[in-house]
TrEMBL record, chains A, B:
It comes from Flavobacterium potami. PANTHER family: NICOTINAMIDE-NUCLEOTIDE AMIDOHYDROLASE PNCC, NMN AMIDOHYDROLASE-LIKE PROTEIN YFAY. CDD domains: cinA. Gene3D superfamilies: CinA-like (3.90.950.20), MoaB/Mog-like domain (3.40.980.10). Residues 4-172 form the MoaB/Mog domain. InterPro entries: CinA (IPR050101), CinA-like_C (IPR036653), CinA_C (IPR008136), CinA_KH (IPR041424), Competence-induced_CinA (IPR008135), MoaB/Mog-like_dom_sf (IPR036425), MoaB/Mog_dom (IPR001453). This is CinA-like protein. SMART domains: MoCF_biosynth. Belongs to the CinA family. SUPFAM superfamilies: CinA-like, Molybdenum cofactor biosynthesis proteins.
Length: 417, 417
């Protein structure tokens, strides 16, 4: 079963807002086995919408349109539906009662003609009552394709999708099973991962697709199985994930869809009852910010010293001035001293430290731009590594933060195993 | 002049990621007077891409395709370009040299066949060198339509758009003059701002459009003037911005397109030769991370103590334990003490402190979830405010960080004026 998603509105086409409605819809449809074959954003223009409808007619089973339902004159979705279905607008008494109740009863305002017009719908449509707002959803069928119109306001759209659209599709359509499995890997780039698993990938059965979702420092692999026999799909995914794990066990850190290295580290530290702190120079608090964004992190993340200025390294962390004079602030020696100091100061089991030069210009050091030293103090000592993360500044901060977490995760794994 | 934007990749169609590349591209094109008539997301499927190309042929001047250029098997864009243009892939020596330098010289790894294949491009294309990664951009023309292929990795895509695509379009196409002026406001919501400027907005000339770009805690107003007489446009924008400033002077913080409150603060602090530090509990280093992300911030941002655990507040910042016992960690008193301590510790002119309960569960305090105290120590004393930022956790951290910066900015303004 196939669907297309159309978003209507100029604010998306000039880049003023990012379309998040389509991703929400796609995820909801994917979960019930509906394949989204395309997403489109087009302007509030009747002819453009009609052309798009005609293109999709009988090519997909469902077309979902969001936006273009507000009370102002540049919202044209309803008129376009009437033209496409050769229908006319009539007042829907149920919607009118709801809109009147909302405006007069809840907002305590006199109802205007613009408000009342929200109750106009094509005479042959199935109305989807929108308890969250004034614009109703509409469901109309032409030959093999259903056209659904939804308001663009995210929480109204979400309400109608969850309460009306998804249950109605589940009742009325037969769909295949779709099973996804995500594998989160860290520390190797997309092409290196692809090379390592090439043979495995070539041997995947036809009904399982593999996708690579690369981010700086990490690659998410997604397996998707489609078919009619749910049990068979689950077994096939399971056995293929096992054989994948045997090949790249060293870089796999998690299997959950929304897992990140921060949540993986959080689970490991909680399980082992260990704590972490950070001393950050070039990452400027980013690592602390990533760690503390995880709910429940207060049980293992104790705190951080962002020693951005050299004085802060000396005065707050107690890094010896002569160490800085001898080796410069961007050095393995200073990174180690920072990690050991903050571990002491915050009384934690582990401590990460970063010092480097993120650019664009050189700071209190002659180190090449992009150079970063990462130190990790553990219960057994301290390890330091040197990196060059290139440019721009944003990328250096990003990659240094992610790499630090990766080093930490690998070390904690050693005590878990 | 018209453009279409196509994003390729299944991860968007199943809702796993939100497409932010299209909004970036749309904004960049809009700025130079190119109208985006549609955006599409389609799957990594050759036939689907070819059909879409054919539909857009001669209907738009430029088709920009992002994604589908990685080294792995699920990327098909290059092969599709070859088929559409009846061309074949050849090695581009310049790209090969760049990829080799990047892999062998920078990452210190032997180059693989997959890496080398990144240098394969259609023989007749204009190559756009990608200094930020291995996949080059491509520019090919068929009849009246140019097809441009860009990598999907956001910072690589952005680099090519800013350094190659936009300048090339500006050189090769005639477009109307478009002048934008952005006004950054802080502290009032979209509808309140809209009410205050309603009369002014209704009196804008026909050729000037106003857009609201709301974000938590701030609203960006964008004026866009379109026409053929550049001087007239500039004069009209200038006089309308002046009359706007007269109405909402109290909430305007800046006028530059890419300005954020962090960069505004950076300029003010640099100008006045003042310094800042932070002591963060519930914001977990986010404020430090925002401040230090600004290039050149090392001249005014000295550092931060992220005192996530109560012990860190006592041991590192020296907040008296009896103050915590008496008022709890989430209190105006503790926030003030944190701000004054870190100001002292980091020897700065200003210091921000946050303490609160971001949820989802209560921590070392009985304070209601969402409660945050923000303190700002200045050369003249300390001010504290209490907020409740609701839920979820992510929103509390976000809004507390933005509100802290807003309080800081307002205070620094006092000394500047």
């Amino acid at each position: 079963m196939k669907a297309a998603i159309i978003t209507i509105g100029d604010e998306i086409l000039i880049g003023q807002i990012v379309d998040t409605n389509s991703a929400f819809l796609a995820k909801a449809l994917d979960r019930i086995g509906v394949e989204v074959s395309e997403m489109l954003s087009i302007s509030d223009d009747k002819k453009h919408i009609l052309d798009t409808f005609a293109q999709l007619q009988n090519k997909v089973d469902v077309v979902i349109v969001t936006g273009g339902l507000g009370p102002t004159k540049d919202d044209v979705t309803k008129k376009t539906f009437c033209e496409y279905f050769n229908d006319e607008l009539v007042v829907n008494p149920e919607v009118l009662a709801h809109v009147t109740q909302l405006i007069e009863g809840f907002y305590k305002r006199p109802i205007s003609q613009l408000n009342k017009d929200q109750a106009l719908v094509p005479s042959t449509c199935t109305v989807l009552q929108n308890k969250m707002g004034t614009a109703p959803g509409m469901w109309m069928k032409k030959e093999d394709t259903v056209y659904i119109s939804l308001p663009g306001v995210p929480y109204e759209m979400k309400y109608l999708v969850e309460e009306e659209i998804i249950p109605k599709i589940v009742r009325e359509y037969k769909r295949p099973y779709i099973i996804h499995k995500t594998i989160l890997t860290y520390g190797q780039g997309e092409s290196l991962v692809a090379e390592r698993i090439e043979h495995w990938e070539n041997n995947l059965p036809e009904f399982i697709k593999l996708a690579y979702l690369p981010n700086p420092g990490r690659v998410r692999l997604r397996l998707t199985a489609r078919g009619t026999d749910k049990e068979e799909l689950e077994k096939a995914i399971e056995s293929n994930v096992q054989s994948l794990d045997a090949i790249i066990h060293d870089i796999i850190v998690g299997y959950e869809e929304n897992e990140t290295i921060e949540t993986v580290i959080g689970k490991l530290l909680s399980k082992e009852n260990k704590t972490i702190s950070t001393a950050e120079s070039c990452t400027g608090g980013r690592i602390a910010s990533l760690l503390s964004a995880v709910p429940g992190s207060s049980s293992y993340f104790k705190g951080s010293v962002v020693s951005y200025a050299t004085e802060a390294k000396v005065n707050v962390l107690g890094v010896p001035q002569n160490l800085i004079d001898q080796f410069t602030v961007v050095s393995a020696e200073v990174a180690s001293a920072m990690a050991l100091s903050v571990k002491d100061l915050m009384k934690t089991d582990y401590a990460l430290a970063t010092t480097g030069n993120a650019g664009p210009s050189k700071g209190d050091s002659d180190a090449e731009i992009g150079t970063v030293f990462i130190a990790l103090a553990t219960p057994n000592g301290v390890i330091v590594e040197e990196f060059n993360f290139g440019q721009p500044r944003e990328k250096v901060i990003d990659r240094a933060s992610v790499k630090s977490l990766e080093i930490l995760q690998k070390e904690i794994l050693k005590i878990v195993q």
